[in-house]
Design goal:
The protein has helices at 40-50, 53-57, 67-81, 97-104, 116-125, 157-167, 184-189, 194-197, 207-216, 235-246, and strands at residues 12-14, 23-26, 32-34, 87-91, 108-112, 142-148, 168-179, 203-204, 220-224, 252-258. The protein has 260 residues and is an alpha/beta fold. The protein has a single domain (17-258), classed as Rossmann fold, CATH 3.40.50.150. The strands form 2 sheets. The protein has a 6-stranded mixed beta sheet, sandwiched between helices. Strand 6 (142-148), helix 6 and strand 7 (168-179) form a beta-alpha-beta unit. Helix 3 crosses helix 4 (97-104). Bound molecules: zinc ion. Zinc ion is lined by residues 3, 5, 7, 26, 28-29, 31.
Length: 260
């Protein structure tokens, strides 16, 4: 695997010394990515298992945010990012929980999802048909695209970000969240960090590498936001999340990028 920035191999060094040692750091752009991506068939199987019906309904999957986090995202987006008349696309919509939540709140939200099993679940259980490809979406169609815990999964980072840039209207916004490799857990656990051990996590970003790749795909005004959704209800979680944000060790990177 070469770095998506196109830097030569001599710019790549091993990232972790323990645990997952498959990750390389690109000294040129700061990107950390798996040396060996799982093949298409292996990835298909991983996603198929993640979206088996009992995993979704039992909330045992690590693949999706829980209901509480989805409402937290929807609350943030609808008050801070989205205007009432905007068309929204949730890229990597999973089983469609955010699409359903935003539609329920009266917003025009579509979803795109790679995994067939997730699209089938969404249609059968939520009644929304998610897109399987974006080729037919006209240039500049959406005002907002959301990518929640998705960018770290992309097998083709640059072309995917360019495609999202294409379907965004001028002045449109891309909202991205991803696990932060400079967060508290990542720093302590290194190659044993939960997010590094997930085989479908292909990239681990920090702020500069995230900004670099968004700008490379054509985005401007990459703004890092201090927001991370609370995964569960309860004051302990709120205090923990706020404290980590305050000292810059939050486990979530959150970015708002704009198209000029
Ligand atoms: Zn690079």
């Amino acid at each position: 695997m070469n770095c998506p920035c196109g830097a030569p191999d001599n710019q790549l060094v091993q990232y972790f010394r323990t645990g997952e040692i498959d990750f390389r750091l690109c000294k040129s752009c700061g990107c950390v990515f798996r040396k060996q991506f799982p093949g298409p068939e292996e990835l298909d199987e991983i996603y198929r298992q993640a979206y088996e019906e009992e995993n979704i309904s039992g909330e045992t999957t690590n693949q999706e945010s829980g209901d509480y986090a989805v409402r937290s995202f929807a609350g943030y987006l609808t008050t801070q990012v989205v205007n009432p008349a905007d068309r929204i696309l949730d890229y990597g919509a999973g089983s469609g929980s955010l699409v359903a939540e935003l539609c329920h709140r009266g917003f025009a939200c579509d979803g795109f999802e790679f995994a067939q099993s997730a699209r089938e679940y969404c249609l059968a259980n939520r009644g929304y048909s998610l897109k399987a490809e974006l080729k037919t979406v006209p240039d500049g169609y959406y005002q907002v695209v959301t990518m929640i815990e998705v960018i770290e999964h992309l097998t083709d980072l640059t072309s995917t970000l360019q495609e999202i840039h294409r379907i965004l209207a001028p002045g449109g916004k891309l909202f991205v969240t991803t696990p932060s490799r400079t967060g508290f857990r990542a720093r302590i656990e290194k190659g044993n960090w939960r997010e590094a051990r997930k085989k479908f996590h292909l990239f681990l970003f920090d702020r500069p590498s995230m900004s670099f790749h968004l700008k490379r795909a054509g985005f401007t005004g990459v703004e890092h936001i201090v927001f991370s959704p609370f995964q569960k209800q309860g004051w302990k979680f709120v205090i923990y999340a706020r404290m980590m944000q305050a000292i810059g060790l939050s486990g979530t990177l959150c970015v708002l990028a704009s198209k000029q």
